[in-house]
Every structure is written in structure tokens, then in C-alpha cells.
């Protein structure tokens, strides 16, 4: 049996690595991205700006007209680094919207099909940032919200044999992470600050996060639901857990 997995934010970073990994594992991959990747996409790709509610609705209609979605990886997100005194309310709204509203809207669109088939897998991408980091008011709130949302879905959807889990990457060498943290003045100091909080002493690679996502999507992981899987090199061990 070939499961169809829908990945948001599928054309860059963790999303693209996940698409390649799941394709290699035999999944039929359907991706949503704002722009095409620089390399060939390993499946069906739909271009849409998920920051737009109407565009999200339209692209989900187009996908569900062609595919029965068995699995969802809610990966798309946004991080705007601002200390509390500088947080713009527009920035706060944008970060919460792209991380939370999109996850809800995508899951809602595919939910009736999953319920009718009595099968589904939902993976929501949280972050080590949910445990707190300076400058991450909006992002930390959004990613902590992902955890609570995932646990709620796990309870609601269990009667339909649909599992919901969250994956929480630590600092991962994606373009977004490097742009937000490892460029500009003080980049080397920030790099060393990050590494000092990671017991394994290095950043994660996107394919390592993809492997964890693949585990939770495997049909043999059918008794795992409502869980938060840290992929963080041990950095969550030096923070208070949620």
C-alpha cells in the first residue's frame, strides 16, 4: 500500500529533505511551496502562498481533487527575531498565522477523508525555540502552541485511528536558520552561543529531522500519538520541558 503524504513548506530546508526521504521510503509525495526548488522535486508540487487564507483553501481543493491524503507534515513556518520591546504586532500576527492557522486549515481540509478511511498521520513541526530563547516572543509562542494543538488533536482523532505527533528540531542548518542567526555582525559569537547549548556540539542537518518525521509516519508507529519528539542533539535536556 502506498500512502500519500502532503508536506507544506516543501521546497526548502527540512520540508525538501523530508520530501526526498519519504519518496525514498515509498510514499507518494505531494508538496506545497511558495516557489519551486532549485532541484527536481520528488513528487507532485503545488505552488501557493499559504500566508493567504483563500490561496490555502484553493490549493487544498486542487490537491484533494486528485489525491487521497493519508499523512500530513505541517512544516511551513515563519520566524521573525525581535526582542520584546521591538515586537511589531503585525509580525506577531504573521508568525502565529503561518505556524498555527495554516496547520489547522490544512488538517481540516484533509480530515474528513482520513476519518472515513479510519487512518491518518499528522506531524506538526514545533521547535526547540518553544522552550524559550531571547528574541523569539512570536516564534516561541507559535511553536509552543503547536505542541498543545498536537496533543489536543491526538485525543480528538484517536477514535478514528488517526495519530498526531510533533517533531521539535533543535538548531538546524537550513537557509532560514542561517539567515536569522548566522549572518551579519556578531555571527560567530551567535554560532558559538548556539553550539554551547547543544551537548552533541553541532547543528542538526535537515535529513536528520526528516528521518524522525519518517519514523512517526511509518504504519508500524501506529501506537505513538500525542508525543513530542525532540531532534535537538540533547539541547532540550538543558531546558525546562513543556
UniProtKB/TrEMBL annotation:
Record CDD domains: SDR_c
InterPro entries (UniProt xref): KR_dom (IPR057326), NAD(P)-bd_dom_sf (IPR036291), Sc_DH/Rdtase_CS (IPR020904), SDR (IPR050259), SDR_fam (IPR002347)
Residues in Ketoreductase domain copies: 3-170
Any GO BP: monocarboxylic acid metabolic process
Domain of life: Bacteria
One Pfam family linked to the record: adh_short_C2
Family that this chain belongs to: Belongs to the short-chain dehydrogenases/reductases (SDR) family.
PANTHER family tied to this protein: 3-OXOACYL-(ACYL-CARRIER-PROTEIN) REDUCTASE, 3-OXOACYL-[ACYL-CARRIER-PROTEIN] REDUCTASE FABG
Protein name in the entry: 3-ketoacyl-ACP reductase
